[in-house]
Write a structure and sequence with these properties.
Length: about 325
């Protein structure tokens, strides 16, 4: 028997990530092959023609699961009764910029969108903020949505997790599925901390398999921290298909039970975190889901002095970002 429809909104519908993400969601890659979907696509009024074109292409794919498409530029209308919100719509950075340089332009988008989610979305909505700088934008949005539990909001560090998985698998000459327990701690920025201390390869500690601490500290970590900038330098535009792929993985991990004793990375509200991080940030932690859309932070991971020092640096950057947007927080 067919299930009730799930409503999924995608902001930045006329942008490059959406051009990949919309088709993947419509194909069932996010909610599976039995879940009928309504797709809501929000972008600025000026992008109305592009949204119409996107709708035409989605229609022409005849995706069996895609039962309805709404397009528009009014957030409250597009957020109406949605169960999942991919908040992608925001300016991307260009060459030579840090993601936090976008705060002045992008931060205010998340004030309005937090309010609109609060007013119109289903109360059990799960939200993934992709638009950069995603941690602090997510913090802004959740503070403007008091009727939605803060643990329903996520900022995307899944692309960093995927990048780290690839680099470790390549170095160890194993399949990517052999890499597990990978945490990205902190900010989705050049201070993020890809954790090689607690990650595993074929169930063994990474350092046992890749017996090269220098490479892990001095090459692996910077490679992941700078991967987004490298893509921009080469493509002239920021990552898009890999970002869409990560967005699907990120919210899917929230909705399905985390397999075995593994975990995944997500930027979540730091209140009551067991790692001594400031209580009012969106910080990326190791997370587990029981499959109902709520995640828990995995406690008791060993943080050696090197990792702890890096975590402090990422926390400091997030505190600075929060200071920069004080006037956007209620
Ligand atoms: P893009 O410029 O191609 O598209 C952005 C779209 O957002 C545009 O169509 C624009 O009109 C729209 N937009 C702007 N303001 C909006 C608003 N208030 N409401 C709705 N739509 C609005 O950019 P893109 O490449 O799709 O990237 C989008 C964002 O995602 C950027 O901020 C980028 O830095 C970020 N990003 C994050 C990650 C991550 O890992 N967290 C990865 C890749 C990109
Ligand atoms: C990425 O990590 O690819 C995105 O955050 C885009 C960027 O600005 O690097």
């Amino acid at each position: 028997m067919s299930q009730p429809i799930k409503r999924v909104v995608l902001t930045g519908g006329a942008g490059q990530i959406a051009y990949s993400l919309a088709f993947r969601i419509a194909n069932g890659d996010f909610l599976g092959p039995d879940q009928p979907i309504a797709l809501h696509l929000l972008d600025l009024e000026i992008s109305g023609q592009v949204l119409k074109g996107l709708k035409m292409e989605l229609d022409d794919c005849v995706f069996p699961l895609l039962k309805e498409i709404k397009i528009g530029h009014v957030a409250e209308e597009m957020f109406g009764d949605v169960h999942y919100a991919f908040l992608v719509g925001a300016k991307p950075r260009g060459p030579g910029m840090e993601r936090k340089d976008l705060l002045a332009d992008n931060g205010k988008i998340f004030v309005e969108q937090g309010k609109a989610l609060n007013a119109a979305a289903s109360k059990d909505v799960r939200v993934l903020v992709v638009g950069n700088p995603c941690n602090t934008n997510c913090l802004i949005a959740m503070h403007h949505a008091p009727n939605i539990a803060r643990n329903q909001f996520h900022a995307m560090t899944r692309l960093d997790q995927n990048r780290a998985t690839f680099q470790l698998a390549k170095k160890a000459n194993v399949d990517t599925k052999d890499v597990s327990h990978l945490t990205i701690w902190g900010n989705h920025s050049s201070t993020q901390v890809p954790d090689f201390v607690n990650a595993k390869i074929k169930g063994q500690r990474v350092e046992k398999v890749i017996n090269d601490r220098k490479w892990l500290e001095n090459e692996f970590i910077p490679t992941i921290q700078k991967r987004g900038a490298q893509v921009i330098a080469l493509r002239g535009k920021s990552s898009a298909a890999s970002a869409a792929n990560a967005a699907i993985g990120a919210l899917k991990s929230v909705t399905i039970a985390t397999p075995n004793d593994d975990w995944f990375s997500s930027g979540i509200y730091s209140e009551n975190n067991p790692y001594g991080i400031d209580q009012d940030l969106v910080f990326s932690f190791p997370c587990r889901s029981k499959g109902k859309g709520d995640v828990e932070i995995v406690p008791n991971l060993h943080l050696d002095p090197f990792l702890r020092d890096r975590l402090e640096t990422s926390q400091k950057e997030l505190l600075e970002e929060r200071d920069l947007v004080r006037d956007l927080l209620p």
